[in-house]
TrEMBL record:
Statement: the UniProt record of this protein carries the keyword rRNA processing: no
Keywords: Cell inner membrane, Cell membrane, Membrane, Transmembrane, Transmembrane helix, Transport
Descriptive protein name: Predicted transporter component
Organism of derivation: Acidilobus saccharovorans (strain DSM 16705 / JCM 18335 / VKM B-2471 / 345-15)
Lineage: Archaea, Thermoproteota, Thermoprotei, Acidilobales, Acidilobaceae
Gene Ontology CC: plasma membrane
Length: 412
């Protein structure tokens, strides 16, 4: 096996690339994820599916050729992962943030992200306190714990190899990855990005036109992405990103595919260099050092922490770079209220900050309970075909959509 372990500071570069790419998508803006919870804009779902379609066959193809990776599928403890997913999805719907997008939003200069960060650290601290109780630990982590499993193989803890299930080998895993990638591409290809836009990417590619509904959604999306942002000139890169590329209905167009490929292949490179991409561990690391250095969970985090703090700082830096020099979406910490939130709860900044704080608290509590977040479980885990990641993603999306319907029902 060809293996390599990079120094910790390389995490800054990894985070920078992913932060800049995701900011260009629009993921740093909480309205993007709130609209996902309302099932109005499936950008995140479609682009992550595209990333899996690109990255998973590359990952397992290289592995079949003898390249070793620092695998990191999270343990499949069914109860804790499922309940953590429910809390995560509920908090995401309320706040519009997941752990990594908080750092992106700080780079974009979003004021409510400051409150989300404090809520996230408190959520991580709450799980650290809960983990001290042996009964809670056994019920959530010890019950129905099947270890680190991916589709077709088991991952021994800390190993740079996989143990295929009986009758399978590395080449079989590559074949499974190809089928998995095709399924993920079909999800992105057939699920329309916008609610009300009946056309999937298939129809968009055939018909070569933009419908009035899609045009309205394009304009509305560009409006919220640039609310309170820096000015930009007509014909500039920022105008193209904000008014054309990032609002595109057809996620199989070059911009969306390019960004999905950059994110996915960066995660593959990261797994070769050091570890999977994950971001919520940093909050437990901060909470442990600030409040709970002698707690059992803090000691586990201190011992196992990788370059997550570096990659989180890199994510912030990458988002800041993109928001200043590419998209011009930097808001300088003005009081910007997401439109969906304002429509439902009003424009009182204190209420929004409470929602941002409380949602991030639930989201991080769920992330640490499940031992992973949108980065570690959904992005990295989904790319690895980890069973825990697929379970977590299922519960996140289900709870996010159900709770989003309750949160954002219009006032009569």
């Amino acid at each position: 096996m060809i293996t390599y372990t990079a120094p910790m500071w390389v995490g800054l570069i990894i985070g920078f690339i992913i932060g800049a790419a995701a900011e260009a998508w629009g993921i740093a803006n909480p309205e993007t994820l709130i609209r996902l919870a309302k099932w109005e804009d499936r950008l995140f779902l479609d682009c992550i599916a595209l990333g899996f379609a690109i990255g998973t066959p590359v990952l397992f193809g290289l592995y079949a050729l003898g390249v070793g990776f620092h695998w990191g599928p999270k343990p499949l403890y069914v109860i804790g992962v499922g309940l953590g997913g429910v809390l995560f999805g509920s908090g995401l719907a309320l706040s519009g943030y997941f752990p990594g997008s908080i750092w992106m939003a700080l780079g974009e200069g979003r004021r409510d992200a400051v409150y989300a960060l404090f809520g996230a650290i408190l959520g991580a601290a709450t799980w650290t306190a809960m983990y001290q109780d042996p009964a809670i630990r056994k019920a959530l982590v010890g019950t129905l714990n099947f270890g680190s499993q991916i589709i077709g193989a088991t991952h021994p803890s800390g190993a740079e190899y996989l143990v295929p299930w009986p009758g399978l080998n590395r080449y079989s895993l590559f074949g499974i990855a190809l089928v998995y990638g095709i399924i993920m591409f079909l999800i992105a290809y057939y699920v329309p990005r916008y609610r009300g836009g009946s056309r999937s990417c298939l129809r968009a590619n055939i018909e070569k036109r933009v419908t009035p509904v899609e045009m309205k959604m394009h304009e509305d999306t560009a409006r919220y992405l640039t609310d309170g942002a820096l000015p930009y000139k007509k014909g500039s890169l920022a105008q193209k990103l904000n008014e054309y590329y990032a609002v595109e209905s057809n996620v199989t167009r070059w911009f969306m595919v390019s960004v999905a490929g950059i994110v996915a292949l960066t995660v593959v490179a990261e797994m070769f260099l050091h570890q999977i991409f994950g971001e919520s561990t940093t909050d437990s690391w901060i909470a442990g050092h600030l409040f709970m250095p002698n707690f059992a969970y803090s000691k586990i985090v201190f011992k196992g922490i990788g370059w997550e703090p570096y990659s989180d700082i890199g994510t912030l830096m990458g988002s800041f770079f993109a928001a200043i020099f590419l998209t011009r979406r930097f808001t300088a910490f003005r009081n910007i209220i997401p439109p969906s939130w304002a429509e439902r709860f009003g424009t009182n900044s204190a209420v929004r900050f409470l929602g941002s704080f409380g949602g991030a608290y639930l989201m991080l509590l769920g992330a640490r309970m499940a031992d992973g977040c949108a980065s570690g479980h959904i992005l990295s885990g989904g790319l690895e075909m980890a069973l825990s990641g697929l379970e977590f993603a299922g519960f996140v999306f289900l709870s996010m959509v159900l709770v989003g319907r309750v949160y954002y029902q219009r006032r009569r």
